[in-house]
Amino acid sequence: MQSLFGAIPLVIFLFFSCFFSLPALAQDLPQGTPLPRAGWTVTADSSNGDAPPSNVLDGDPNSMWHTQWTPSNAPMPHWIQLDMGSARIVNGISILPRQDEWNNGNIGAHEVKVSVDGTAWITVAYGTYVNDKSVKRTFFTTKVARYIRIDVYDEAQSYLNPWTTIAELNVYGPWGNPPVSTFADPPPETKGRWGTTVDVPVVPAAAALASNNKLILWSAFRPDDYYEGWGLTETVEWSFGSGAQTRYALTSTGHDMFCPGISMDVNGLIVVTGGNDNKKTSNYAPGTSSWSSGAEMNLGRGYQSSTIIGDGRIFTIGGSWSGGYGGKNGEIYNSATDVWTSLPGADVARILTDDAAGAFRNDNHAWLFAWKQNTVFNAGPSKAMTWFNVSGSGSWVSAGNRATDDDAMNGIAVMYDAVAGLVLTAGGAADYQEATASVSTYVIQLGTPNTIPTVTKVGDLAYPRSYSTGTVLPDGSVLIVGGQSWPIPFAENDSQFFAELWRPSTQTWTTVAPIAVPRNYHSISILLPDATVATGGSGLCGFNCKENHFDFQIYHPPYLFDSNGELATRPAIVSVSATSRAPGQSLLVDTNGPVTFALVRHGSSTHTVNTDQRRIPLTGPRGGSTYTLTLPSDPGVLLKGYWMLFAINGAGVPSMATTIQIL
Ligand SMILES: *[C@@H]1O[C@H](CO)[C@@H](O)[C@H](O)[C@H]1NC(C)=O
Ligand SMILES: *[C@@H]1O[C@H](CO)[C@@H](O)[C@H](O)[C@H]1NC(C)=O
Ligand SMILES: [Cu+2]
């Protein structure tokens, strides 16, 4: 009965698809194409008489699979399983939720698994979908599979309901439908490995690693869209370790924190400024998961950058994306007293690029670095570089040009060695959008404030990119992910899938494993306490926009693998003498073997900017199993706030981090 029922709608689908505009449930995407579904079979744990699982393959968005609800409900969890008849290379699924007036059975918490034989399963994605009728797309690192299975743990509408429904289910494979015999996993010991995709019910356009190791991810007033003036922010907290996630609409501060500045203070308070609600300040207190309103900025800003400085205050400049065009000179926030002070002498004219879109774009996303003597160094993206002084009403001193570089809007700038004052810059484009992205890479060495730094052009990126993210790793290498060679917000043409890793020892980029999902405008990357990197987001372009990416994926760098591609044995930090220290003080660290150390500051990420991260290499004498580390004495180098202390063994393998607060 089921097979008969399955065959008729297939014919109808072929007829309908030629003449009617069905929801775009199986379109070609930069990351892959839908596989033809002829001959596939599908089974499920349960179904209602009029809603068999075969409905997910019938091409009709108005028919669905519904778990049994009459005469009684089949309990959660539920599953549905596809047999594609033979093994294929697969890299994603799309789920069309039911398209009628009900949300009953929309999938919430779930796992996506693949199998070659229907017995041994690999989890390729897990997480939570948002409760709406948009197509749910989960892309994952390429696998060979004949069977695809979705396990459903709760309903997105109300996690108490025991139902699951799906209107259409599609599977994707890489472009060109390559034969299974061509499948090869990149060797993880040289290319690293992208892990399980994590589905989250917002497009994470901004993120921060809180001091309690929760990853805070947020979108705008909607999980999938932004628009000015709605005064709330959809937020997800993801727990490092357990992987548990909680979503809530942040309403307490009346602040849509989309396109903001982000900086963390000495107590781990995440200070989020401007964006859609352009004068607001919202402060996240880790541990309580609560946000409070701070004082408003003197100027409305969006796309400004901010950074904590040596004395612990937070400096911001630029940001004409919202709150009016031009004149966005510096100001500074004291989070202890909740006071903003204007710095008219911190002249925004110093940071302007020559953008085709003029004042709207030319003061966006400054590359700010706190430095010695309470200064702030602006490394770009303007080709001119500047020292800012926050004393009194603010002042500046030219720091020359970034060698031969052009304006590099939406490139990356990462302080990979704050002891030596070394900043890596790469990519970006002369204009915010519709411009040729750059491959140029520079190392800037900061010395005494107000002096011209040394700028060295080093090896180019293999892939030109703008809108990518840059993340410093414990060993001082820098991971660049995503971006486009011809950047266009909310478009995915010319997306760069290969990540690249820059190593300070060679001063060159190495191409590493590709991402499964385009990560462009509105993407994020954050170093996690196990020395992996979470990269996610991109999009936020409204309902059913196929450029929305409600997920992140975790990169495991090559240093986590041994020469056979197996997980390397990590060194361990056994104990530390204190969990908070001040600059210049000593820290005693017990380890289970000989190591060097690095402190990496907790990061925050949005719109290519992560001014919270920086790395400090540390070594010290060892007596017995105890190292004595002397911390840098300048608070402009060792910024206040939360840092991850990693031990790194002789093979370059990092430990799990121990959290250290710098006072
Ligand atoms: C910053 O400005 C103050 C006030 O003018 C001055 O005393 C101080 O030396 C300046 N600092 C630097 C590093 O230039
Ligand atoms: C992206 O590429 C497609 C196919 O080449 C083209 O039709 C489309 O106009 C491009 N989109 C943009 C925004 O350039
Ligand atoms: Cu934005």
- Oligomeric form: single chain
Rg calc = 25 Å
Query: What structural class do you assign from the helix and strand content?
Result: mainly beta
Helix content: under 10%
Distance between the ends: 71 Å
- Give the biggest beta sheet: 11 strands, mixed
Topology diagram in text:
Layout: H1 2-19, E1 33-34, E2 41-44, E3 65-66, E4 78-96, E5 109-115, E6 122-128, E7 136-152, E8 165-166, E9 168-173, H2 188-191, E10 193-199, E11 206-209, E12 214-218, E13 233-239, E14 245-250, E15 261-264, E16 270-273, E17 281-285, E18 290-294, E19 305-308, E20 314-317, E21 330-334, E22 339-343, E23 368-371, E24 375-378, E25 384-389, E26 395-401, E27 412-417, E28 422-426, E29 441-445, E30 454-458, E31 469-472, E32 478-481, E33 498-503, E34 508-514, E35 523-527, E36 533-537, E37 551-556, E38 573-576, E39 580-581, E40 586-591, E41 596-601, E42 604-606, E43 615-618, E44 622-623, E45 626-630, E46 641-648, E47 658-662
Parallel strand pairs: 6-10, 39-47
Antiparallel strand pairs: 1-9, 2-4, 3-8, 4-7, 4-9, 5-6, 5-7, 10-37, 11-12, 11-42, 12-13, 13-14, 15-16, 16-17, 17-18, 19-20, 20-21, 21-22, 23-24, 24-25, 25-26, 27-28, 28-29, 29-30, 31-32, 32-33, 33-34, 35-36, 36-37, 38-40, 40-45, 41-43, 41-46, 44-45, 46-47
The structure holds 2-acetamido-2-deoxy-beta-D-glucopyranose (NAG) (2 copies) and copper (II) ion.
The site of one 2-acetamido-2-deoxy-beta-D-glucopyranose has 8 residues, from loops.
